[in-house]
């Protein structure tokens, strides 16, 4: 039992280290809600003067786990929820989250009047039990196609920022999270209408499926990403332990190679399609006929190479996990049934001639 608990603790610590979850003191100000201070920030509205006012977001470990588990429960369908928190300077702090009863598909999620009624009831009930945090954003999932804002997401976030500031959008990819072992998450805010952001150079690269590239490219300059950090306290420990004891067994009983088999197949098909679009340029490059106008095609080929490496590493990660579990649980030592206590030889130590004589 003690050994099992130690293995559970090790697995939980590894998850916290992988996702850079920092511990804070339970008496820290981050857990104290000051209504007067929050109202002063709302009255000042510093985000109206600076489109880049919010630079980062802090998410509690409990809220992170709840979002990931909710997104994972949706499978290939998008899910949606709301976030409760506050503002501390240029940092948005997410203390808790709750799911919304919405209609989801593989490409979008639609919140109807029932969802808004549920949200209002939930927030009022939370305030009655002493949770004074307000709704500061929404989250939804992008199963298998990365963390970014689509055209519909941009419109939704822009509308929310117009009437419910401060507001942030979080996107989680549960499929890539299961494949890589690290939470695939992004936090975003949209620019005001008519604002043209400066060219800050290329952003961090991420794999986008071919059928989503156009939607990504059209709207990628209408929002910016926030730095995401996580925190936890001793008060979260019991809740985290309760959630983790339910989750950690899945690490041993499941395989990403089987769970994400469909996702891996889709990745390979997507790589094939991308290679076909870049093939003409790569052929001309071999005979030295690439001009300056075709450099974009070369970049396209390099992206395909990076996507291929990423898919390969994820498959190898799953394969190595299976090999390790096989070595731990399936390697049974064959003991010689004729061995005595005085001469406890195993079958592996007995010469071949003796084995033949015994049989």
Please, could you describe this protein's structure?
Residues 57-194 form the MPN domain. This is COP9 signalosome complex subunit 5. Helix content is 48%, strand content 16%. By secondary structure, it is α/β, with parallel strands linked by helices. Strands 2-4-3-7-8-9-10 form a seven-stranded mixed beta barrel. It has a two-stranded antiparallel ribbon with strand order 5-6. A hairpin with a 2-residue loop joins β3 (80-88) and β4 (91-99). It is globular and about 65 Å long. The chain starts with a helix and ends with a helix. The relative contact order is 0.11. Residues 282-287 have low confidence and may be disordered.
Topology:
Layout: H1 2-18, E1 21-23, H2 35-44, E2 56-60, H3 61-73, E3 80-88, E4 91-99, E5 103-104, E6 109-110, H4 113-128, E7 134-141, H5 151-163, E8 168-172, H6 174-180, E9 185-190, H7 210-219, E10 223-232, H8 237-247, H9 249-253, H10 256-259, H11 261-286, H12 295-329, H13 352-358
Parallel strand pairs: 1-10, 2-4, 2-10, 7-8
Antiparallel strand pairs: 3-4, 3-7, 5-6, 8-9, 9-10
Helix pairs in contact: 11-12
Protein name: COP9 signalosome complex subunit 5
Keywords: Cytoplasm, Hydrolase, Metal-binding, Metalloprotease, Nucleus, Protease, Signalosome, Zinc
Domain MPN: 57-194
